[in-house]
UniProtKB/TrEMBL annotation:
This is Putative N-acetylmannosamine-6-phosphate 2-epimerase. Converts N-acetylmannosamine-6-phosphate (ManNAc-6-P) to N-acetylglucosamine-6-phosphate (GlcNAc-6-P). NCBIfam families: PRK01130.1 (NF002231). Pathway: Amino-sugar metabolism; N-acetylneuraminate degradation; D-fructose 6-phosphate from N-acetylneuraminate: step 3/5. Belongs to the NanE family. It comes from Alicyclobacillus dauci.
């Protein structure tokens, strides 16, 4: 799928991130593909998935473009979203339409720079579209200059030098739309339909939502924390 065809499919829509890593309650064979089927039934225009097995099974079950990542930790780098060509290879051979990579300015394992990684991806997988996950405007500008197809706000709050709040980074999203000349995808901490609407109104081509749809433990926590703040009306409230 080329970039225009992908954009055509996702424009203005919701991409659902269906991910559960090993220590999460929903990790395990078959669960995320069912999530993806549910997301498609609800009208999602694309799926973001982690790991070759989930990507392959989701591609087999849903007729939607898939953005693939492989999360892997290395001892010599903090970068864990598709950090080297090895993980890109796993994403590509599983059949993803797009590979998302950490496109922050930090070095990848073995001292690999973002520039080198992108040029190796282009050489080895010329068909694969690249989504660059960034945490700042400078990183977005740099990733675009290095040739990624789309940038996303995914990493805001996950690098030591970006703002760590529980809200989507609307400031970054707006700045990326205004200053970067490739399509921008909003991703990260988008918890409500209103927040998703705001991202599209700011000019993003699509919105990725993960935890608020596919991590029930997180959704449960938001209810529990709200209830802890609730002040009951009636008898309990009047009690001394
Ligand atoms: C920073 C990082 O590792 N983000 C990951 C990237 O794929 C996922 O864990 C997130 O769920 C995804 O970005 C969607 O974000 P949210 O779950 O906040 O809607």
């Amino acid at each position: 799928m080329n970039s225009e065809a992908f954009l055509e499919r996702i424009r203005g829509g919701l991409i659902v991130s269906c991910q559960a890593i090993d220590d999460e309650p929903l990790s395990g064979a078959g669960v995320m593909p069912r999530m993806a089927v549910a997301a498609m039934a609800g009208g999602a225009v694309g799926i973001r998935a982690n790991g070759a097995e989930d990507i392959r099974n989701i591609k087999a079950e849903v007729d939607l473009p898939v953005i693939g990542i492989v999360k892997r930790n290395y001892a010599d780098s903090p970068v864990y979203i598709t950090p080297t060509l090895q993980e890109v290879e796993e994403v590509a051979s599983a059949g993803a339409d797009v590979v998302a990579i950490d496109a922050t300015s930090r070095l990848r394992p073995n001292g690999l720079s973002l520039e080198k990684l992108i040029s190796r991806i282009r050489e080895a997988f010329p068909e694969l579209l690249i989504m660059g996950d960034v945490s700042t405007l400078v990183e977005g500008i740099q990733a675009a200059a290095l040739g990624v197809d789309f940038v996303a706000s995914t990493m805001s709050g996950y690098t030591p030098y970006s703002p760590g709040t529980s809200q989507p980074d609307f400031q970054l999203i707006e700045a990326l739309v205004q200053r970067v000349d490739i399509p921008v995808i909003a991703e990260g901490k988008i918890r409500s339909p209103d927040q998703a609407v705001r991202c599209i109104e700011l000019g993003c081509c699509a919105v990725v939502v993960g935890s608020a749809i596919t991590r029930p433990q997180e959704i449960t926590r938001t209810f529990v924390e709200s209830l802890e703040r609730a002040v009951p009306l009636g008898k309990d409230r009047l009690a001394p």
